[in-house]
Structure formats: structure tokens, C-alpha cells
């Protein structure tokens, strides 16, 4: 539901937009058939659908109205300043004229005091002329004084109006700060769309017949739990990490290197735009059935409290494959900038092109947290990553698929030790899983070797 509120400040009217979302609870879902499950999922999607186009249209209209009023106030302020400057200039001219009159009066008075050796008649005529000039000067001064008073009155009026405009502008800015901003609504819409793609469906909605017979309703913490609970095939599952306040959907790989992997990144065709803002990378974007980024907040909940393994799989345009496996991987919280806090224990044939980024915060085009003082790595390299200054890998760069001209150096989806920074890979995916008993050691050759290096 949309509610428009109006705030008036003299001739200025501000409209505030309030959004209320009315949701109804889904009907009781029967698990007797697949048709009931499908109907429940459809109902959940319909219940969360909002008229986003109408919201964006009204929000844009509100922005236009605020912009017009702001432009009008700026125009009035400029006109007031122009008039004030003109009046001050006229006042300076009046003061100059008065000073001239004073000098002329002084000269005439001094001349009248000088003794005359002319004939009395000629002296009288000169005196008459001096008196006439003095009278004219007095009248001129009186006119100037009257004009100056009027000028002072106009200046006071202009100052009063400028003060009133300033008060209105201050009130307008205060109300504008209290209004729902477009960025806030856009972020809310993104979260809403995200929830529509990954709705909070009851845990038992996707359970099979055997699972429904079980009394256990605990949601798996990660794909490793899913695997251990029943050796399930690869696919999309609902999980809830131990420190996450809500469950979400993930893509699990149960086949690669003993399985139990949770996909956090997947690219293979370039249909999904990865040059997005901080908020998108925080909550995630894309489609679990295609290309996607799981979301930094989800990755933190998966890896921030327990050290995980990381598997990076790469494919070039000719189908050549390579991988990089890390025995230790952990991402910090949002307060920490989703920093790459732990990274180590590399093995594989792709080369270690991620170690350079260890300890770095995550950066996007609209939030620069890299170490490059002269610029923004995310903007310069068209991506989002744990940039330092800047990168030796950039798996969220442009999808350009193949050899690149020199002008596109560092712009593509690349891994420097596998095909280099002037080559954009065809496929890349990143997966994590908790370390277990059979996980490789973080220091393969022991701690002594670590100390020596």
C-alpha cells in the first residue's frame, strides 16, 4: 500500500512516500502430493509479489517534485543575492556622490570666505551664483538621502526574504532527510526480489517421503550436513548456518572431491551482470540454477566462525581445466569489510593467484576499501573482489571469454597464474565446505617449514 503525505512550508509542498507491504499467511500445506507442494510454492511467490514498477514510478515522480522545488529555491536565492549586490553597488555610488557634494560645499564655503577686491556689484553677482549652487547642492543631497533610505529599505526586504528562504530550505532539507530515499527503496526492492527467488519455505516442504516420516526438523547448517544426513545428490537445498538468523537456499555439489561443497560463485556464460553495487554483493544476486553470487553475508555465516576449505575451478575458452584448493578459508563480518581473514594451504594446478589478496577487505564500484590510494580498483578493473592494489585474480570481472587486447588488461574474469591477466576465462566457480577429519593440512610440510619461511 502506498501512502502520500504532504508537508507545507509557505509556497513549498513536499510529498512523503510511505510504503506498507501487506502479506497474508500461506494456506496450510498438505504434503500428500507434488501438486500440493507446487501449489504452495506458487502461493508463496504470489504472496510476496509487489508492484515494484508502480513504486519506482511514484518514487521517481517524488524525486522530480523535490528537484523542482529545490531548483526554485536556488533560483530565488540567486535572484536575491543579485539584487542585494546591485543595491550594495548603488549604495556605494550614493556614498561617493555624497562625498563629492561635501567636497564641493566645502570648496564653495571656503571661496565665500575669501576677501574680494572686485567692485561691489560684481561681488554681489558672484555671491548670488554661489548661493544658487549651494541651494542646488542641498536639494541634490536631500534627493540622495531619500534614495538611500529607499535603498536601505529594499536591502532590508531582500535580507528578510533571503532569511525566510533559508528557513524554508532548512526545513525542506530536514524533511527530505526524513523521507524514504530512492536508494533505501531500491535496496528494499532488491531484498524483496531476493526473498521472492529464495522464499522462506517451511523446512519440510521439500522433504521426501522418507524424511517426512522422521521426527527430526533440524535444518542442515551446510551442504556437508545435507550429505551426511542422507547422501543426497547434487542440487538446491535449504540450509541455515549456526550463526545465521534465517535459512536460505544454496546449490550443493555432492560429487566433486568427496562432495559436501556449497557454491558461493558460479559463472559460465556471461548472462548475469557482475559489475554491481555493494548491496548486491552483500545479499547476493543471480539464479542458483544459472550464474550467481551467493552473497557476502551468507559466505560470512558459512565460513566466518569455522575455518572452511575453498575450491576454485577454472576453464578457459578451449576447455582446458585447472583448480586451486585452499585448506583454510574464512571471510569476516560486514563490520570487518567482509575481509579475506584466513587463507592458506594451497594445492592445485591453477597457481596460487589468491594469496596476494589475503587480509584485504571486499570492494565494489560504490564502496572502495582497497589499498590503492590513487584510485578505485573495482572501477578500474570493472569488478568486485578482495582488492589490494590491485589484483592477481578477478573472478568477478567482465565476462569477455578469451584472449584480450592490451587495452583490456586486468578487465576480464581472470586468474593470473592460469592464462594470465590478458585472458578472460570461460568458466569459474568457487565452493566452500567445513574442514573435516579428511581435510588436507593447512601446512602440508609441517609447522617447522612455516616458521622457516
Automatic annotation (TrEMBL):
**Which residue windows are transmembrane per the record?**
none
GO terms for CC? extracellular region
Main localisation: secreted
Q: Where is the Fibrinogen C-terminal domain?
A: 214-436
Q: SMART domains attached here?
A: FBG
List, in alphabetical order, the Gene Ontology terms for molecular function in this entry: carbohydrate binding
List locations, semicolon-separated: Secreted
What is the superkingdom listed in this entry's lineage?
A: Eukaryota
Q: Is Coiled coil given among the entry's keywords?
A: yes
| Signal peptide per UniProt | 1-24
Query: Which UniProt keywords are given for this protein, alphabetically ordered?
Result: Coiled coil, Disulfide bond, Glycoprotein, Secreted, Signal
Keyword presence, NADP: no
One Pfam family assigned to this protein is Fibrinogen_C
CDD domains per UniProt: FReD
Q: Which NCBIfam families match?
A: GGGWT_bact
Q: What does this protein do?
A: Lectin involved in innate immunity. Agglutinates all types of human erythrocytes, Gram-positive and Gram-negative bacteria. Has a stronger agglutinating activity towards Gram-negative bacteria than towards Gram-positive bacteria. Specifically recognizes acetyl group-containing substances on agglutinated cells. The hemagglutinating activity was inhibited by EDTA, acetyl group-containing mono- and disaccharides, N-acetyl derivatives of amino acids, other acetyl group-containing substances, propionamide and benzamide.
The name of this protein is: Fibrinogen C-terminal domain-containing protein
Lineage, broadest ranks: Eukaryota, Metazoa, Ecdysozoa, Arthropoda, Hexapoda
Amino acid at each position: 500500500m502506498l501512502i502520500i503525505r504532504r508537508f507545507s512550508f509557505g509556497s513549498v509542498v513536499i510529498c512523503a512516500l510511505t510504503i506498507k507491504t501487506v502479506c497474508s499467511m500461506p494456506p496450510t500445506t498438505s504434503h500428500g502430493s507434488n501438486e500440493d507442494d507446487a501449489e504452495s510454492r506458487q502461493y508463496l511467490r504470489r504472496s510476496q509479489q509487489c508492484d515494484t514498477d508502480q513504486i519506482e514510478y511514484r518514487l521517481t515522480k517524488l524525486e522530480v517534485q523535490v528537484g523542482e522545488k529545490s531548483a526554485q529555491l536556488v533560483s530565488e536565492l540567486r535572484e536575491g543575492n543579485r539584487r542585494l549586490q546591485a543595491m550594495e553597488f548603488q549604495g556605494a555610488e550614493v556614498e561617493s556622490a555624497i562625498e563629492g557634494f561635501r567636497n564641493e560645499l566645502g570648496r564653495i564655503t571656503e571661496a565665500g570666505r575669501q576677501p574680494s577686491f572686485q567692485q561691489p556689484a560684481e561681488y554681489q553677482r558672484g555671491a548670488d551664483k554661489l548661493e544658487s549652487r549651494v541651494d542646488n547642492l542641498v536639494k541634490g543631497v536631500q534627493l540622495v538621502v531619500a534614495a538611500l533610505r529607499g535603498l536601505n529599505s529594499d536591502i532590508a526586504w531582500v535580507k528578510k526574504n533571503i532569511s525566510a528562504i533559508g528557513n524554508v530550505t532548512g526545513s525542506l532539507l530536514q524533511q527530505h532527510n526524513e523521507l524514504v530515499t530512492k536508494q533505501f527503496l531500491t535496496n528494499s526492492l532488491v531484498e524483496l526480489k531476493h526473498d521472492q527467488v529464495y522464499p522462506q519455505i517451511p523446512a519440510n516442504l521439500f522433504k521426501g517421503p522418507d524424511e517426512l516420516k522422521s521426527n527430526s526438523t533440524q535444518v542442515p547448517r551446510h551442504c556437508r550436513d545435507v550429505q551426511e544426513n542422507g547422501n543426497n545428490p547434487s542440487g538446491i537445498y535449504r540450509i541455515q548456518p549456526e550463526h545465521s538468523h534465517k535459512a536460505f537456499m544454496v546449490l550443493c555439489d555432492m560429487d566433486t572431491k568427496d562432495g559436501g561443497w556449497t557454491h558461493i560463485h558460479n559463472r559460465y556464460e556471461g548472462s548475469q551482470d557482475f559489475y554491481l553495487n555493494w548491496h548486491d554483493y552483500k545479499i547476493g544476486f543471480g539464479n542458483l540454477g544459472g550464474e550467481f553470487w551467493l552473497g557476502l553475508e551468507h559466505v560470512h555465516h558459512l565460513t566466518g566462525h569455522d575455518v572452511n576449505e575453498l575450491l576454485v575451478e577454472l576453464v578457459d575458452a578451449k576447455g582446458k581445466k585447472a583448480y586451486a584448493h585452499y585448506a583454510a578459508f574464512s571471510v569476516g563480518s560486514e563490520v570487518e569489510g567482509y575481509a579475506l581473514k584466513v587463507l592458506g594451504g594451497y594445492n592445485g594446478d591453477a597457481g596460487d593467484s589468491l594469496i596476494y589478496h589475503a587480509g584485504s577487505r571486499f570492494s565494489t564500484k560504490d564502496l572502495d576499501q582497497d589499498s590503492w590510494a590513487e584510485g578505485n580498483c573495482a572501477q578500474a578493473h570493472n569488478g568486485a573482489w578482495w582488492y589490494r592494489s590491485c589484483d592477481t585474480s578477478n573472478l568477478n570481472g567482465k565476462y569477455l571469454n578469451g584472449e584480450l587486447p592490451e587495452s583490456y588488461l586486468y578487465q576480464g574474469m581472470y586468474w593470473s597464474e592460469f592464462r594470465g591477466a590478458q585472458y578472460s576465462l570461460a568458466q569459474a566457480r568457487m565452493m566452500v565446505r567445513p574442514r573435516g577429519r579428511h581435510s588436507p593440512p593447512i601446512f602440508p610440510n609441517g609447522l617447522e617449514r612455516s616458521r622457516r619461511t
